[in-house]
Amino acid sequence: MIVVIQRVSESSVKINGMIKSEIGEGMMILLGIEDADTHEDIDWLSRKIVNLRVFPDENGVMNRSVLDAGGDILLISQFTLHASTKKGNRPSYIKAAKPDFAIPMYGKMIAALEAELGKSIRTGEFGADMKVSLVNDGPVTIMIDSKNRV
């Protein structure tokens, strides 16, 4: 699994011109799922995300997690994170998981993040044409690949 995490002051996702989900302070996370992903990836990544210290403390130092800050999470599935651009100019998405595997894994990631955060998170809609808006706070943008833990 690959995630791109952006610390935001606000973020939303629209589908067909209607707001599906929105958050204030927190994290907007793009999630890429591949066939090699496991429940262990979900467990490790959800703990890492919720405890990642990217929010400022009283001294302005990034020393607080989304949990500490009381922030929200907006999770959006994005298969294009697994794009391969090695050959030619048209990306290949062969590493991205097909919907029959990715949809249940996306649901399990949602449940794991909610359990770690102790509250509901907001989401996009798997496979939908989504318009994502955000105000990146910092800017802070971090990419994590669960296959590169060492």
TrEMBL record:
Q: What class of enzyme is it?
A: hydrolase
- Which UniProt keyword terms apply here? Cytoplasm, Hydrolase, RNA-binding, tRNA-binding
TM spans (from-to): none
Gene3D superfamilies, alphabetically?
D-tyrosyl-tRNA(Tyr) deacylase (3.50.80.10)
Cell compartments where the protein resides: Cytoplasm
SUPFAM superfamilies linked = DTD-like
Q: Which domain of life is it from?
A: Bacteria
State the oligomer form and interacting partners. Answer: Homodimer.
User: What family is this protein classified in?
Assistant: Belongs to the DTD family.
Purpose? An aminoacyl-tRNA editing enzyme that deacylates mischarged D-aminoacyl-tRNAs. Also deacylates mischarged glycyl-tRNA(Ala), protecting cells against glycine mischarging by AlaRS. Acts via tRNA-based rather than protein-based catalysis; rejects L-amino acids rather than detecting D-amino acids in the active site. By recycling D-aminoacyl-tRNA to D-amino acids and free tRNA molecules, this enzyme counteracts the toxicity associated with the formation of D-aminoacyl-tRNA entities in vivo and helps enforce protein L-homochirality.
Q: Which PANTHER family match?
A: D-AMINOACYL-TRNA DEACYLASE 1, D-TYROSYL-TRNA TYR DEACYLASE
The molecule here is called D-aminoacyl-tRNA deacylase
What species is this protein from?
Algoriphagus aestuariicola
